[in-house]
Write a structure and sequence with these properties.
Layout (H helix, E strand, L loop, with lengths): L4 H6 L1 H4 L5 H10 L1 E5 L5 H11 L3 E5 L24 H12 L4 E5 L8 H6 L3 E4 L4 H14 L3 E7 L2 E7 L7 H5 L11 H4 L3 H20 L8 E6 L4 E6 L33
Parallel strand pairs: 1-2, 1-4, 2-3, 4-5
Antiparallel strand pairs: 5-6, 6-7, 7-8
Helix pairs in contact: 4-5, 4-10
Length: 270
């Protein structure tokens, strides 16, 4: 199917890139990406994926917009306070690019629905802020053979990695199990600089785009950390564990399940 004149203009900066071109842009238009969490990470990722012309974007979040969100969750605005985050996000995404189909899921992502949610998508972005959700998303994606990008932010630090089935370690290979409840402070307790969501969330969007168009090196087998105060990126090699409970040679986790513990934000590795 040929591009319209409006599409040629909209995506012209992509199409002139030899790594993207018309073929890559068509791949983006045919792709389906699910973003779990419409907060500090999901907000910039959703905006950039919509702008890039990803054809179908799902966004899952149970919360409503709160005044304290606006310091970092740039997809929402002051008039959106009290509105469901998924509805606010959809409005902003379609304002940037009306061509994009946005599927909204105003719900908590749990073991009861996560497999169904990820089933229809080509790539998943974990934009959540708590360990139980991160392990749940990891396990669901591994069990479903779905690639995904993990990320976490706190204070002036962030981290991300990408899982591709059969090509490297999963999140559980690196972290194995959630820490004890209250062992790691939340963003509400420790704080987070607003722009950190933009830095790391945008990198998640970049990983999704590279996967879709089949170009570049993904963070598969590596954890990328960022210290904003030192302005330093570090790339840490992550080995795949053959004894991993979900992606190892003899897995013991055969279905998604919910951890019974309080939420706590991810502490980036140092």
């Amino acid at each position: 199917m040929a591009f319209s004149n409006e599409q040629l203009e909209r995506y012209s900066r992509h199409i002139i890139l030899k790594e993207v071109g018309a073929k890559g842009q068509k791949k983006l238009q045919a792709a389906k990406v699910l973003i779990i969490g419409a907060g500090g990470l999901g907000a910039p990722a959703a905006l950039y994926l919509a702008a890039a012309g990803v054809g179908t974007i799902g966004i899952a979040d149970a919360d409503a917009v709160d005044l304290s969100n606006l310091q970092r969750q740039v997809i929402h605005a002051t008039p959106d306070i009290g509105k469901a985050k998924v509805c606010s996000a959809k409005q902003s995404m379609q304002a940037i690019n009306p061509e994009v189909q946005v599927n909204t899921y105003q719900c908590f992502v749990t073991a009861a629905n996560v497999m169904e949610l990820v089933a229809d998508y080509d790539f998943v972005l974990d934009g959540t802020d708590n360990f139980p959700a991160k392990f749940l998303i990891n396990d669901a994606c591994v069990l479903s053979a779905k690639p995904f990008s993990h990320a976490g932010i706190i204070r002036f630090q962030g981290q991300l990695m990408t899982y591709v089935p059969g090509q490297g370690p999963c999140y559980r290979c690196a972290f194995q199990n959630p820490p004890p409840a209250d062992a790691v402070p939340t963003c509400r307790q420790a704080g987070v600089i607003g722009a950190m969501g933009g830095v790391i969330g945008s990198l998640q969007a970049m990983e999704a785009v590279k996967y879709i168009i089949g170009q570049g090196d993904l963070l598969c087998g590596s954890l990328l950390t960022f210290d904003a105060l030192k302005m330093e990126f570090r790339k840490i090699k992550l080995p795949r564990r053959d004894t991993c409970a979900v992606c190892g040679s003899q897995p013991t986790i055969l279905a998604a399940f919910d951890y019974k513990q309080a939420a706590c934000d991810l502490k980036p590795a140092t």
